[in-house]
Design goal:
Helix content of chain A: 55-70%
Strand order of the largest sheet of chain B: 2-1-3-7-9
Low-confidence stretches of chain B: 1-13
Number of strands of chain A: 2
CATH topology of one domain in chain A: Fumarate Reductase Cytochrome B subunit
Structural class of chain A: mainly alpha
Chains: A mainly alpha, B alpha/beta, C mainly alpha
Shape of chain A: elongated
Strand content of chain B: 5-15%
CATH superfamily of the largest domain in chain B: NADH:ubiquinone oxidoreductase-like, 20kDa subunit
Strand content of chain A: under 5%
Oligomer: heterotrimer
Radius of gyration of chain A: 22 Å
Largest sheet of chain B: 5 strands, parallel
Order of helices and strands of chain B: HHHHEHHEHEEEEHEHEEHHHHHHH
Mean pLDDT of chain B: 84
Number of strands of chain B: 9
CATH superfamily of one domain in chain A: Transmembrane di-heme cytochromes, Chain C
Shape of chain B: elongated
CATH architecture of the largest domain in chain B: 3-Layer(aba) Sandwich
Number of domains of chain B: 3
CATH class of the largest domain in chain B: Alpha Beta
Low-confidence stretches of chain A: 1-6, 241-245
CATH topology of the largest domain in chain B: Rossmann fold
Mean pLDDT of chain A: 86
Helix content of chain B: 40-55%
Structural class of chain B: alpha/beta
CATH architecture of one domain in chain A: Up-down Bundle
Number of helices of chain A: 11
């Protein structure tokens, strides 16, 4: 028993995800869910076999309204997150997502080897750990931000011609640049699938990290806390992109 | 148009539209009716009707050269369908259509001489209308007239044109011949004519009255109509067919034709699910309709095929909402591929989970043991 | 060796055509015709959804608009063994007949008439005599001396303006024009009337197919629903309009077009002896009443006539390899199995191979190659 006791780590609790980041995350979950469901419906509506007159029903109208309302929330939530990339703590900082250092690329390689390809790795690689986003996750999130942007551009671009408010009209140039509404609509539809695939992989990897690391990965998006072994923390001074902050 | 001042003397003796119309037995009232209809077509305020009338009373006939390249002549045909009683008269007689391979009496040498004559006599004043795209493949041999390629002809004739009108989808965006694999390298006019206003009037063909409206705008104001970012007259191409469609309430209600022989088709429900491209097509079909307002595709029960949109032949099939994915065959729309991708992801993740339990067994065991040990420790 | 003359462009046709003719002693000894525009829609069509093919194919021609689309949907239905509803067959036949009416009139007046009718000579006509002549030919009401005098004055003023527009550089006054001034004036008046008329008759296409040019077709039938009291669709009001348009269309053809055709042709009887090709004629037949496969049900029968012998009409089977073949020996195309052979359209190839002179050029090199770019679908098609 004594031997085993030595291996019980003292855990350090770190406040990783600030409240605004958590709110951003869960708004995103909700809004994306609404956007995907309503988006699918708009793309291929159900066959309503009701005997009602068109003046009595507004099914498509409601789905579209939900889609547009969710789109506004999604957009401003996204804008807020960009702001928080400069105002938030180091785990929320924009440098988590855009590779600016050599260590970022090094970590990327390590994560690929250890967590994606499940290779043995050397000692350094085995002992590697991150507190916030790992480099691969960060870069992937950067990819999602680009997809967010594309989705906002194409979505509001399509919406512009039927909008009366000046704001969506700012996007009227998008279909012209992309070569017409048809292609814009298609890009909007294709990109949605990126979100679906992303969500599936994202949820899986959260479970994965929680399972193989035991540091509170899943619950971290609830309370914002993650846990790390004290001795690992002392020894490695885990990767943070801007440790001065 | 300042150029008109210089040429005013030359045209002084020529009858104006108003002279001609009066001469033909139309009253001033008829004339004003026509002028207000044209003003409405062009999208002018009521106050501008007087201006249209005045312009047509005082301006002499405008020389027009109409070239045909890679086309099917549907634009010329649509033009002569222009339906307001005196529009056909005005546009066939009142512009001076000095060169048109479809309608002109002269052929060969005489036709070419007529063209040359207008090029010289009305240098900088004539309007150049182009029907068709220009094939730039194989040095232009896929369209030759009088032993010259369409590329050579376009260069010569566009040089001193006051403005260029690209009739129809061929001239505006290449239409069917530019669809993949575009074997002749069919090229729209705006990519070849530089330094000159090019008015795009897309559609296969454009509505006759739209064509008439564009020309009358030029006659009236001596300037080209206001264009959108793609070079189309805003008056006719700023609204989606969908937004002006009388079946729109069915769309909002979610009531759709599921197949062409169902009860919903008889009830005139929205054609969205059978591939209608109205929601992505900018044209005046829902407002002006076709053939003197007789009907338009959706009214006759057929989905809009989006014929005035760029690249409409390659942007998805006619009877499908979802468009096929380039390179994956015609049956592969985004959702089909998405489902495959989702399946593949599921399989990959399951594999990853299994491998994790195998490869990281030691770590997981350690973690479990540590957790259990910690638990014991606390109890003790 | 005589003189070579070139006529290019040939105007008042759809497409781009060039004729070179060798003249000897004032007569044409030999002639070469060459279609000088190609789009290769056959290549573009490959790999597309067969339900969409009609739209691509329809764009082959906007003058005989709808025929290529009709042929395309029939082809797809034949391949997939689809029987269309009886109403769809009727609607398609009405649309096809509409084109038949429209195309004949437009071809005669707007495309062909200026080869027979001298517009400028019409100014010399006596309106009173013209009126008498017109009234002796038909009951068409627009035939008063005042009517013809107005037309004459209108064209007179037009000619005097010096801007001749579409009549610029015509062959006015050429001795080959044989019509007396009064017939020229009738022809001219009816040219203008037919211009108004032609946009009316095609409204039938708009009713059933949504628009004209290029009305919409549908594999499996027609998209327009039919029900006398349907709010949207082909209801009683729409059918009444079709009926009116057909009746008025028929009136114009019977009272204007055919009398004009007969009157004008009577002055050019000698032209009947010129041309005529090989004297072999093939008609596919049309207006099916029991489906496209039952050729016996066609209101417009199919058949072939050989050597101008109209006493015997031969049966044709379009599906037989040896009955219909496309030859490209005189086209700027090549066949993988050699250019001398003919191929049934089902096995056709469309590989382009331009071997003509490099533009700009004066003459085709007819000695070494008398190739020509074909008009879409216009390959030489011999029968048997």
């Amino acid at each position: 028993m004594a031997e085993k006791l030595l291996r019980v780590h003292r855990l350090r609790r770190i406040y990783v995800w600030e409240l605004p980041v958590r709110i951003y995350h869960w708004i995103n979950v909700l809004v994306l869910l609404v956007l995907i469901v309503t988006g699918f419906y708009i793309g291929n509506p159900l066959a309503l076999m009701s005997g009602k007159e068109a003046s009595e029903v507004y099914t498509m109208g409601w789905f579209r309204f939900l889609h547009f309302a969710a789109a506004y929330i999604f957009f401003f939530n996204f804008v807020f997150r960009i702001y928080w990339g400069f105002a938030g703590n180091k785990y929320a900082n924009w440098k988590q997502f855009i590779p600016t250092t050599k260590t970022f690329w090094k970590e990327l390689k390590t994560v690929l080897k250890m967590d994606i390809l499940l290779m043995k790795g050397n000692k350094e690689e085995r002992e590697h750990l991150t507190i916030g986003h790992n480099a691969l996750a960060g870069l992937t999130y950067f990819g999602t931000f680009l997809a967010f942007l594309l989705q906002c551009l194409t979505g509001f671009g399509l919406y512009a011609s039927m909008a009366s408010w000046w704001f969506p009209k700012l996007f009227a140039w998008v279909p012209f640049v992309l070569g017409g509404d048809i292609l814009t609509r298609q890009i909007h539809h294709w990109t949605m699938w990126f979100f679906i695939l992303f969500a599936v992989i994202h949820v899986y990897l959260v479970f994965y990290h929680d399972y193989v690391e035991g540091r509170g990965e899943i619950s971290s998006m609830g309370g914002g806390w993650k846990f790390i072994e004290e001795d690992y923390f002392e020894k490695n001074k885990p990767h943070t992109p801007n440790p001065e902050k | 148009m300042s150029k008109h001042h210089h040429s005013q003397e030359k045209w002084f003796e020529q009858p104006t539209y108003y002279d001609e119309i009066r001469f033909k037995g139309y009253s001033r009232r008829d004339f004003m009716k026509f002028a207000s209809m044209m003003a409405a077509f062009i999208g002018l305020e009521t106050s501008a009707i007087g201006q249209v009338a005045k312009a047509m009373e005082t301006k002499p006939r405008l020389p027009v050269i109409w070239l045909h390249f890679q086309e099917c002549t549907c634009c010329s045909e649509s033009f002569i369908r222009s339906s307001h009683p005196i529009v056909a008269d005005i546009l066939l007689d009142k512009i001076s259509l000095d060169y048109s391979e479809t309608l002109m009496a002269a052929s060969g040498t005489q036709a070419e001489a007529a063209l040359k004559n207008t090029l010289e006599k009305y240098k900088g004043q004539y309007i150049l209308c182009i029907e068709g795209s220009v094939p730039v493949g194989a040095d232009g041999v896929y369209c030759m007239i009088g032993g010259k390629t369409s590329m050579q002809i376009l260069e010569e004739v566009s040089e001193h044109a006051a403005a260029v009108i690209a009739w129809g989808s061929c001239a505006s965006n290449g239409c069917v011949q530019s669809a993949k694999p575009n074997p002749t390298k069919a090229t729209p006019i705006h990519k070849l004519v530089k330094g000159k206003p090019v008015i795009k009037v897309p559609g296969c063909p454009p509505i006759g009255e739209v064509m008439a409206g564009v020309i009358v705008h030029y006659l009236t104001f001596g300037t080209i109509p206001e264009l959108d970012r793609l070079g189309r007259p805003k008056a006719f191409y700023s609204k989606r067919v969908h937004d002006t469609c009388y079946r729109r309430p069915f769309y909002d209600a979610g009531l759709f034709v599921e197949s062409f022989d169902d009860e919903n088709a008889k009830k005139g429900y929205c054609l969205y699910k059978v591939g209608c491209k109205g929601p992505t097509t900018y044209n005046a079909c829902g407002v002006m309709k076709w053939n003197e307002g007789t009907s338009y595709p959706i009214q006759s029960g057929h989905p809009c095929i989006g014929c005035s949109e760029e690249n409409y032949w390659d942007n998805g099939r006619l009877y499908e909402r979802a468009s096929s994915f380039a390179g994956f065959g015609i049956e592969s729309d985004a959702d089909t591929l998405g489902k495959y991708a989702l399946g593949a992801t599921g399989v990959a993740l399951a594999g990853h989970a299994i491998l994790t339990n195998l490869n990281k067994r030691k770590d997981i065991n350690t973690l479990t043991a540590e957790g259990e040990a910690g638990d014991v420790d606390v109890i003790e | 060796m005589g003189k070579r003359i070139v006529v290019d462009p040939i105007t008042r046709i759809e497409g781009h055509l060039r004729i070179e003719a060798d003249i000897e002693n004032g007569k044409i000894k030999d002639a070469y015709s060459s279609g000088t525009m190609v789009r290769l829609i056959e290549e573009i069509l490959k790999g597309r959804d067969p339900r969409d093919a009609w739209a691509y194919v329809g764009r082959v021609c906007g003058v005989c608009t709808s025929t290529h689309s009709l042929t395309s949907v029939r082809t797809v239905e034949d391949a997939l063994d689809i029987t269309i509803p009886a109403n769809a067959e009727l609607v398609r036949n009405i649309m096809h007949c509409t084109l038949y009416m429209h195309d004949h009139v437009v071809h005669f007046y707007h495309l062909h008439a200026m080869d027979w009718v001298d517009v400028v000579n019409a100014l010399k006509a006596d309106p009173k005599k013209t009126s008498e002549l017109a009234q002796s030919l038909s009951h068409w009401p627009k035939s008063s001396p005042g009517y013809f005098s107005d037309i004459q004055a209108r064209i007179g003023k037009f000619v005097a303006s010096g801007q001749l527009g579409i009549f610029s550089n015509g062959y006015w006054g050429h001795p080959a024009y044989k019509l007396p001034p009064e017939v020229n004036l009738i022809g001219l008046a009816h040219y203008l009337e037919a211009l108004e008329w032609q946009k009316e008759i095609v409204k039938i296409h708009a009713i059933f197919g949504g628009k004209n040019p290029h009305p919409n077709y549908l594999v499996g039938g027609m998209a327009c629903s039919i029900g006398l009291d349907d709010v949207s669709g082909i209801n009683a009001e729409r059918l009444a309009m079709v009926d009116r348009l057909l009746t008025e269309g028929k009136q114009f053809i019977e009272q204007v077009y055919i009398p004009d055709l007969m009157a004008i042709a009577s002055f050019y009887k000698d032209w009947g002896a010129i041309g005529g090709g090989l004297g072999n004629y093939l008609v596919y037949g049309d207006l099916p009443t029991k489906g496209i496969r039952d050729t016996a049900s066609f209101k417009f029968p199919s058949g072939a006539i050989l050597g101008k012998d109209i006493s015997k009409v031969y049966d044709v089977d379009l599906k037989k390899d040896d009955e219909v073949q496309e030859f490209i020996k005189h086209s700027w195309y090549e066949y993988s199995g050699g250019d001398d052979k003919g191929l049934h359209p089902w096995k056709g190839e469309s590989k382009i191979n331009y071997t003509g002179p490099k533009p700009p050029f004066e003459h085709l090199d007819v000695k070494t190659n008398i190739h020509t770019l074909k008009h879409q679908g216009g390959m030489a098609m011999p029968w048997k």
